[in-house]
Amino acid sequence: MQHYEVLVLFPGKYAEEETKGVREKITTLITERKGDVTFENFMGLRRLAYPIKHERQGYYFAVEFNAEPSVMQEIDRTLSLETDVIRHLIVQKHEMTEEERVREQAMAAKFKAKQAERRERLEKESQPARGVARPAAKTPAPVPPTEPTQAESKLAPETAAPAPAPVEKKTKEQTEEEQKSRLDELDKKLDEILDDTNIKL
Fold it and tell me: Is the pTM of this model over 0.70?
């Protein structure tokens, strides 16, 4: 005889008590085929990862049993024709001792507790704390006006200019001279800036 496990999925439309009849039908099917049921585990209603035969939820039921390999095809065919079974899976399995089973159940319980703790922590982090005022957004401090440097005052146009003086007509020679002197001043300033050792280019 070989040791097997069958995992059966029932539709979620049933009430939990109604699944008892379906579970008994599965175990009876195995015992009628000269199988020996060693362990049953009803895992309850769970949400499915994707719809199966238009069902979004289902009841999981696992049965471990010993049976001859020759009857496995018959059990598999009967389960596939069963209307109360959405899906089933039969696997050959190592028969666990009671000690191994207790250890596995303890690990499963520990895993569930960790999952619940993680879910609770994530929910707390995602919700803002009640009664705690959120810090207001900091507005930048106003920058005090600075006096323009000598270079800036010469290069930048005056913002608060006095009343315009009467326009004097300048000759072409005068305007050319003024432009030349301005360019000379600019060249001198640029040379000073380039010669300054504190400025890194």
Answer: no
Alpha helices in 35-133 (DSSP H): 72-81, 98-126
Of 23, 41, 39, 43, residue with least CA distance to 95: 39
d(CA 117, CA 131): 24
Rounded to whole angstroms, the maximal C-alpha distance in the chain is 124
25: left (phi over 0), alpha (psi -120 to 50) or beta: alpha
Element (H, E) at 183: helix 172-195
Q: Please tell me whether residue 150 adopts helix, strand or coil conformation.
A: helix
d(CA 3, CA 36): 9
DSSP 18: T
Residue 189's contacts (CB-CB under 8 Å, 6 or more residues apart) are: 151, 154, 155
Q: Which two tokens stand for residue 64?
A: 């471990």
Instruction: Give residue 71's identity as a one-letter amino acid code.
Output: V
Beta bridge partners of 52: 55
Tell me: pLDDT of 140 over 70: no
**CA 32 to CA 102: how far, in whole Å?**
29
Nearest by Cα to 149 from 183, 117, 192 = 192
Per-residue pLDDT band at 139 (split at 50, 70, 90): low
Backbone angle region of 131, left / alpha / beta, with phi > 0 → left and psi within -120 to 50 → alpha: left
